[in-house]
Design brief:
This protein folds into 2 domains: 87 residues, no CATH class; 39 residues, no CATH class. It contains 3 helices and 8 strands. The longest helix is centred in the first third of the chain and has 15 residues. The chain is globular, with a radius of gyration of 16 Å.
């Protein structure tokens, strides 16, 4: 699946990459390919290539880097990457809701699922919505 990288988005991706390359622990995918890191930490690393392909690396499972067409992995990566980079324009790369889709009941289209924290911190915790995987919409499966 190729995401539609427009020239304005590409310009911003290049700026994000420059910042990411300054990190003292920039990984080999970032340093060797034209990508930005969408997410790296718990779970797989997800990267957006400047040509619109999304790469995923389950490094903790010792799996090789590969391109993914899994819309859930792509959506989660885009949503996390938009938040981490401060570039909400990445959200424009998410697939549009199809005619048979509905706004996700879990996240109400926000891409995030909020839950109360069990600490004195009054701010709720958030994770990418487990129902829509960050798309903001769902399609009911045929029975």
């Amino acid at each position: 699946m190729l995401l539609p990288i427009t020239e304005p988005i590409l310009e911003r991706l290049r700026a994000i990459r420059v910042t990411q390359l300054q990190h003292p622990y920039a990984d080999e995918v970032l340093t060797q390919q034209e990508v930005i890191v969408l997410t790296l930490g718990l779970g797989p690393a997800i990267y957006l290539r400047f040509d619109g392909r999304v790469l995923i690396w389950h490094y903790m499972d010792d799996e090789p880097l590969r391109e993914t067409d899994d819309v859930g992995d792509i959506a989660a990566g885009i949503v996390i990457g938009a938040r981490n980079s401060g570039f909400d324009g990445l959200l424009s790369l998410l697939p549009q809701m199809p005619s048979n889709g509905t706004v996700c009941d879990t996240c109400c289209g926000t891409h995030w699922w909020s839950f109360p924290r069990q600490t004195n911190n009054k701010k709720p915790g958030e994770i990418v919505c487990p129902t829509c995987r960050g798309l903001g919409w769902t399609v009911e499966s045929p029975r």
